[in-house]
Amino acid sequence: MELADQAVIDRARSGDSDAFRVLVERHSRALFRLSFRMTGNESDAEDVVQETFLRAYRQLGKFDGRANFGTWLYRIAANCALDLVRARSRRGEKVWEPGAAAGGIREGASDPLLTSAAKDPGPERLAISSQVRERVAEAMDELSPAERTAFVLRHFEGMCIEDVSRALGCQTGAAKHSVFRAVQKLRRALEPLVNTK
Amino acid sequence: MTHLTEEELILHYYSEADGGPVERHLDACPECRAAYGSLERVLNVMDALPVPERGEGYETAVWRRLRGAGLRPALWRRPLVRWPAAALVLASALVGVVLIHRPAPPPLQSAGVQKRILDFAVGDYLDRSQIVLAELANASPAGTLDISVDQELAGDLLAECRLYHQTALRTGDNAVAGVLDELERVLVEISHAPSRLAPAQVEELQQRLRSQGVLFRIRNLGSTVRTQAEHKS
Ligand SMILES: [Zn+2]
Q1: What local confidence, expressed as pLDDT, does residue B29 receive?
Q2: pTM of the complete model
Q3: CA atoms within 13 A on the CB side of A196
Q4: pLDDT-wise least confident of A152-156, B5-9, B171-175
Q5: Taking the domains of chain A in order of start, what are their residue ranges?
Q6: How confident is the model at residue A169 (pLDDT cuts 50, 70, 90)?
Q7: Do B145 and B194 contact (CB within 8 A), yes or no?
Q8: Chain B residues within 8 angstroms (CB to CB) of chain A
Q9: Closest CA to A49 of B131, B147, B71, B196
Q10: CB-based contacts of A74: which residues, under 8 Å, 6+ apart?
Q11: I need a surface site. Which of A31, A51, A192, B32 has the fewest CB within 10 A?
């Protein structure tokens, strides 16, 4: 997959008109999921997707091929989202739109039961009601922009903390701190909910 | 014994630390085990964070929006594109002469060089037009088709089309003038269409593009003109 990406990138750089389109089509869905988790808002997520590809297009010459293209794209997206969420929180706006939860079923979640995606599923399988989804989204909304972005990259994208710090352009310690703070806040918000189930 | 810190538990959940000592502690310590279980439940439930699904054709929609936002197919950035700038000046000068009925200013280049610049520019112009038309001709939307981006591009192309059309008439290049005349009509039609087309309207537009053979003629003329320009050099 990534080798194929590299071949397409080479073509895009050499002026092939369809090559960049291939990259856009290949990565736009995953990029939307990432952007939505980071912004909590559909129209912001679309803006992040668009801005990410525009920046990527302009910076394609700087892509050195050491990271894989997806990771490079995510790095750009993380920074776009961070800019956007910061601008929003400066204006004191809430990020989460309750309406988004209505049609917002996680991909692959046709099974109403949730298992852990992160590690050993453990004995708990938790029925996910729309209320739970909404509470989770609200809890995310309580995170600061840096906490939210770091947490999304660590938890949902499975990046190690070192990669998170690289993506956000900060020290490893700062990225670790953001993840810790995020988890602490999420625990405070959600522990009453999960421990009564 | 010293209990595990919350940070150690978090790093353990994400497998970011040496798991051995933590595992051993968790096995031995019910208190930390309970804390870890609670942490696990919270982090597991995070996967319920809803993400709205994108419909079919999302990838294409993203591409179209990008083009609308100024991302042009790479073809538009090829070195050839420097020709239109020179050619537009040249064409404007030629057409200007016709419009104001004054003798032509002494040309800076010989007629041969002028013709070559125009041929290159027209060839490039036809390429760009063909990209826009081909995309519409080949679209197979599941529902309505948003052509606002194509309309913007068609608007840009239209202004150039008129200029080259007039120039071709002026220089007596009838083959070029004929195709540009046809292209102009198609571009006007696209610009004036509703920006969201129902499947039947898409089909109608595509039918017209096919039946008039516009695409075919544009492609043909493009390569003829380019060959001419290359032979003259
Ligand atoms: Zn303990």
Answers
A1: 96
A2: 0.59
A3: 4
A4: B171-175
A5: 5-195
A6: confident
A7: no
A8: 6-7, 10, 13-16, 37-54, 58-60, 62-63, 65-66, 69-71, 73-78, 131
A9: B71
A10: A31, A34, A153, A157, A159, A167
A11: A192
- Compute the half-sphere exposure of residue A100: CA atoms within 13 Å on the CB side of its CA: 26
- Domain A5-195: top CATH class: mainly alpha
- Around B10, how many Cα atoms within 13 Å sit in the side-chain half-sphere? 21
Query: Does the interface ipTM go beyond 0.95?
Result: no
A57 and chain B: CB distance < 8 Å anywhere? yes
User: Could you report the per-residue pLDDT of A129-149, keeping only the tens digit for each?
Assistant: 778 888 999 999 999 999 999
pLDDT in tens, B159-211: 888 888 888 888 888 888 988 998 898 899 888 888 888 888 888 888 888 77
Show me where the domains of chain B are located. 6-47, 79-232
Q: How far is B43 from chain A (nearest CA, A)?
A: 8
Q: Which amino acid is at A35?
A: S
A153 DSSP assignment: I
